[in-house]
What does this fold into?
Amino acid sequence: MLAALIVLRTLVVVASFLVVARRASRESGARTQVRGSWRSYRAGLGLLAASSALETVPVLLGQSVGRVGLGLVLVLRVTSTTGCFFLYHGISRWYRAHDKGRPSGRVDWLVGISCVLGVAGLANVVLVVPDGGTGLAQQLRIVHVASIAVLLSAVAFFALTMPRDLRGRSTMVAAAVALVLVTQVVYLLHGPQLGIVLACWTAWAYLAVAYAIAACLPAVTLGHQHHRILSVPVVSSAGLVLGLVSLLGAGLVPRPTHWALWFGAAAIAGSGVRLVRLVRDLADHDRARRQARTDDLTGLANRREFLDHLRRAAGEGAPFAVLLLDLDRFKEVNDQHGHAAGDELLTATAIRLGSVLPHPALLARLGGDEFAVLLPGADAAEAVTTAGSMLAAVSRVDVVLGSVVAHTVGASVGVATSSGSDGLSGEELLRRADGAMYTAKVGGLGVALHDEVTDRAWRSRVLLSEELHDALGVDAGPCAADAFEVHYQPQVSLVDDEVVGVEALVRWNHPRLGLLAPGAFLDVLEERGMMPALTVHVARRAVTDLAAWRAAGYDLRLSINTSSTYLSNPQLLELLDELAEGTDPSRIVVEVTETSLMNEPERALATCRDITARGFSLSIDDFGTGYSSLAYLANLPATELKIDRAFTSRALVDDRITAIVAGTVDLAHHLGLRVVAEGVEDTGTLELLRGLGIEESQGYLHSRPVPAGEFLRWLRGRTPAVV
Ligand code: C2E
Ligand code: CA
Ligand code: CA
It folds into this structure.
């Protein structure tokens, strides 16, 4: 009868194990943590099944387990205690899968073991065990019972905190564990009486079945939850407290066992180690959190942190100001002296700025060379004063770059304020400060306060920039470039009144604003690095038109404009190579403005030599507006010099200007250059210029810049074609 019962129990436990094992292998890979927890349950039930089978052997042989020998008893205890550990482990893995608030990623055996030892220590204090509890077998039984108690607390907690879907099954498991615990405690206190042994067997079988039933129920998917209450600190402290209590208890009870002391000390040590690790984990966690909110280089708040503070300030209803500072010529420092120098400059700037800000101000680096300040409680006047101190602070930043070069940088600050009741969002304030900063930068003002008019101008500029990007952007394709028309303005010989050349001038056919002159968009284009794309478009178009005029009997020289950024771009030479394949390069004049030559004189000189080496002519455009030196001009392989409209237009009315023009013409002729006067609008000026020996004139007097077709008609009306 007894043998049949224990065989039946073993069969039940093994069958339940198989059910759980099947569930563990079926759990989908996407839920790795949940699968991990089923695997732990499988291991736990596997060990329980093994221990149950082991226990069956002596009973089948007609012997009581106790009599088979201490060895088997020890093996049984260790196996089923480890089984309980795995069941506990399964639960802790499940928690980990759904609790992202826990800093440690490693599964915590130490916590469980410490708790078990703590409970075991306590049990040694409070329980009156039949043989005094001194034997190893007894202590293993106590540890075994303690592990069931810890398992029970974990499962019970699970049952209490889980959503309803999971509560039923976890309560069932908790009840089973509770039953096992009660029967085991009774066994511990009263020894192996038949009734008690049977009850123990039944309880284990029920526990295994409870897991099997849970394994058959449908899976429940939960999002991440925060079960902080079961988090590592609480559980580790539980082990610590249990250990302490058992140590204290061992000192208080009349018949203390040394086991209580050992278990208590081990529990304290285990929990202590875990707590120390926890403190380290928390410190790491905290560092990681801080790093996400600070700028690595300067240690200031980063954009995310700044925006958070800004939103909070905007929500508080009190006045505040936002200041945005951008360093001038930072890119130059970076390019010329290297990134290390740039970093040094930024760090030094951060320190200087920090030293001049009033108390509750928040200083942040938003990225690159852009710093922002949030000034709680400040009005416009205070904010502008602070902006002034910031500028002064930045101007004192001297960084030794490489060899002992001190570099002083300037900056521009934009200021925007909120009364707190105007309903402006933090983002809007930052945008306004950005607009004001831009105004300050363009106007060289140092500090600018947001105002509607300049803000509107800034907004329309931003809009224009986006529209330009759409019209000419890399992904815009060739059709979009058709939005850019090329108009032509003739250059007329002052010697024989013949049309000798033509300058290609770009126009943007804007969908909303109509035909725009280059002044309205070229600088934005330059800023966004889209100049190469435009120049390629204009040059190709102009060369095609030039060929058409030639076919119509007009052999003209074509002038094409370049920009300062494009001059140092190798793509310019590639473009010229392409043009040279279809046209005679000596009929194409590349116009380079005097200012762009002076940006990087050495490099510009090299490029100019490359241009003329390909057979193209070179013209110095807008002469008189830059500050080139005679020596530099003499080295330049140019063939033409264009006198800027600023001089020609006033030559007739201002004798000093006439003298300058006369001097310039002399100089040019000495250098072997042809002189073209720009912006000639009246015959009086024309005659004056002719008298000064200028070779060619270009201006509204002859024609405004017009589209190719109109230009041809104009040509035909003026001179018959030479066929
Ligand atoms: P620029 O090269 O000095 O071109 C001459 C400018 O003076 C043109 O202005 C022309 O329309 C204007 N102009 C000519 N004659 C007269 C006159 O008698 N009176 C007055 N008031 N103005 C006259 P536009 O077309 O507005 O071009 C402005 C500038 O834009 C050009 O100055 C040139 O630097 C630049 N630009 C034009 N097209 C291109 C281009 O395709 N590429 C590049 N990089 N720059 C271009
Ligand atoms: Ca030009
Ligand atoms: Ca010009």
Observations:
- Confidence is low (pLDDT under 50) at residues 226-230.
- The longest helix spans residues 258-291.
- The CA atoms of residues 362 and 374 lie 5 Å apart.
